[in-house]
Amino acid sequence: MPDILITDVTLSKLDPGLGEQFSVDVTVENRGGSTTGSIINLQIYVDRNPMDPDPAKRLFIDESSGGMLLEYDGGPEDFGEFVLDRGSETLPANESRTYSVIINNTVEPYNAWTANSPVPWGSGTHKLYAYADANGINDESFEKNNHYLSNPVTINPFIEGAPLYPKNNIGMDYNPNFKWNQVLGATSYRLYVTASNGTALINAWYNASLVCYDNNPTCSVSGGPGLFLRNGDYSWKVQPYNATTKTYGAWSASQAFKVEVPPGTAISPAGAIEGDYAPVYTWAKVDTATYYHLYVKGPGNVVILSKLYPSAGTCNSDTGLCTVKSPTLKAGAYTWQVRTYSSVGYGDWVIQTFDTSTVKPGAVTLQEPAGNIGTNYAPKFIWQHNGSATQYRLYVRGPGGVVLLDKWYTTAAYCNAGTGLCTVQGPILRAGAHSWQVQGYSPAGYGPWAVGAFETSTAKPAAAVLQSPKGDIGANYSPQFVWDRDPAATQYRLYIKDPTGTAVWDRWYPASSACNADTGKCTVSGIALRRVGLYRWQVLSYNPAGYGLWAYESFSILLPAAPILTSPKDNIGMEYNPRYKWEQVDQATQYLLYVKGPGGAVILNKWYPASQICDGTYCDVVSPTLRGGAYQWQVRAYNPSGYGNWSPAAQFQTDVQTIPRGVQYMLMNVTPNQAPNNKPVFTWQKSPMATMYRLYVKGPGGLIHDKWYSSVSVCSGDICSVVSPVVLQAEKHTWWVQPYNFAGYGPWRGASFNVRYAPQPAQNLAPSGSAASFASYSWDKSALADKYHLYVVGPNYVLDEWYDAADICGGVQCQTPNPATLDPGEYNWWVMSYSTAAGYGPWSASNFTISP
Known about the structure:
Blueprint: E1 4-11, E2 22-30, E3 38-46, E4 59-61, E5 70-72, E6 81-91, E7 96-103, E8 126-134, E9 153-155, E10 163-165, E11 168-169, E12 177-181, E13 188-195, E14 200-207, H1 208-211, E15 218-222, E16 232-242, E17 247-248, E18 255-259, E19 266-268, E20 271-272, E21 280-284, E22 291-297, E23 303-310, H2 311-314, E24 315-316, E25 321-325, E26 332-342, E27 345-346, E28 350-356, E29 366-368, E30 371-372, E31 380-384, E32 391-397, E33 403-410, H3 411-414, E34 415-416, E35 421-425, E36 432-442, E37 445-456, E38 466-468, E39 471-472, E40 481-484, E41 491-497, E42 503-510, H4 511-514, E43 515-516, E44 521-524, E45 533-543, E46 546-557, E47 565-567, E48 570-571, E49 579-583, E50 590-596, E51 602-609, H5 610-613, E52 618-622, E53 629-639, E54 642-646, E55 650-654, E56 666-668, E57 681-685, E58 692-699, E59 702-710, H6 711-714, E60 715-716, E61 719-723, E62 731-741, E63 744-745, E64 749-755, E65 763-766, E66 769-771, E67 776-780, E68 787-794, E69 797-804, H7 805-808, E70 813-817, E71 825-835, E72 839-850
Parallel strand pairs: 11-18, 20-28, 30-37, 39-46, 48-55, 66-72
Antiparallel strand pairs: 1-2, 2-7, 3-6, 3-8, 4-5, 8-9, 10-12, 12-15, 13-14, 13-16, 16-17, 16-18, 19-21, 21-25, 22-23, 22-26, 24-25, 26-27, 26-28, 29-31, 31-35, 32-33, 32-36, 34-35, 36-37, 38-40, 40-44, 41-42, 41-45, 43-44, 45-46, 47-49, 49-52, 50-51, 50-53, 53-54, 53-55, 56-57, 57-61, 58-59, ...
């Protein structure tokens, strides 16, 4: 039969917390006589309530259960048994294997209670026992060599109500969960948390059923969002209460804990840093810190710096370092310190000391300029750097003792640590003898002056030799102006006059920027000329000794310049008939406009006379109707001398077209009761994407007008209008408008109106002239009139009467009897026609005389 022996029992967690889950590692060896594998069964027993003594001081096998269970002689109330059943796993002969058994209050698949749930963990020192069995054979079950009873493992004591967490230093856990061991019989717990000054932060009761675990001997409470602990010391304790017995338990021992941001490590500067009067403060980055407080004190305990720096802009995650550049310090001893800051408060200070040099800088050694430097009127001043100096004063005087330069320069900006030299580019000097001095400075004080001297040439420069442009340069409206360099010249003046004699350019250029010492040439470019004809240009040289002589040259431009395009450019939206506009070119007589559209299709390639499209400043051409898409256009000018250059291409885009919407409103400007409005204006609102409109008009006799109009020809702003091309008859008319673009036809929109004609004026009035008497008033019949108003004024007489046309008019004439005998004298009379449908016509006038 196999002989199973437990050779070791250890806790995998050597120091489990009070009541925490842990595991037991049991090492088993098969020493039996069988060479076949044996199935191993383990039983672990934990004395969970050591305060309840075991009268028999022993454990025994429950024979009634087949030898697989252990019984506690004092009764089943102190069960603490765990079973590990490896029914499918064998242990070969002469081999050892370690098995792990989890010890807690939960039910695991291979770690089940063998009896009723155990009593809660009691206070005291707990012992653990292990037993092993091979193949579950009763005769061998729990033989002496199968158990590990002689030296049981001791587990940390479990204390009812003992605080578990937080304790000691909990770092940045500023909102901890408070955890403690359960107390047998407790139905609620009072949690009491205080700060170091005694202020109560939590003092509340909690129902045990809500904060304690059924399968774990602990309780846990969160401080909630209102609890936010800052850096500092705290303490807490709990008190149980039993609602059944209505008794309060004793307070647990008070547990102290600390919330703390860890401090950083100050690295540099430290010790003697000599002439580094602006060191970089460097310390180790702390991941939990959001800010750092840097504090620096100098000689005499003067505070140099006290400032918070954000971690994000101060620290480097790759190097793990934080750095801050110091302001310039004085000479002497310094103390600097830094502390972390986060949402929980400040960490502890870390302190470092350093010293800056108290030795004044020594005299510097001047290098150049020295002696006669000829025409180098802008020399570099170079001297040897003195290691402790932080600044230098450069002082230069010219002929007559005139001060040309007196300025301080920082070592950091003007001195090279590699070469040990300091360099300053000097200003333009004068011709003659100069002296220069340099003085070093550091926070320890001023160093001595170093003095040097040199001379510059007193010879004036020669006249420049002009190279180009010369003669006919075609259409090159931006030529390069080139002349020979004179080493003695420090500046050149370039002066240009156009064909009208107007100065178009007058500017000085430093020889250092306009001239190339290697090629011996001076070059100026980028000047845009615009006129056709003869140009004259000249150059004047100069140096501090005086002006040279003017040099003269001329050139001609006979071909027109490339036009400068102004619009359209970029996105012009729904402007499908843009105006191509450019600046008028001097002497151009014609322009070639070239436009390409989507897919490279040529939209325009046409010549236009300048006289027809230009106004003296700009030229413009209305585009044919475009589709939506990207376009490119160029213009080329021409005159009798030839073709100019193409303008640079300009690009623009139009919105891709969709079928236009119908017009929004339609108006007629027909005014009733006035002279015949037989040619009204058809008016409608512009449809945004429409490029064409169809106007369709019907009258009493049928179709009157049907024609397409381009948007650009009939629309202005948001309004489109067309004057009726024909005289309309009286009565009702209907008209429609339909928009169109390359995407298709929009919907029709229609409206109706009436044409109303006022009657014509009366004609051929009688009587007129002189007569002794007359029988009636007469006039020609007016079409459309159905009434007439007769008005007569004379000596002691007025006639004011209305007549129906049906009563007084025949086929072509109207006549009414004279109703009275008139006195001799002069008379004036009028007739006005009237239409009930159309209104009043104009008055017609005449006069007559009644002789004695």
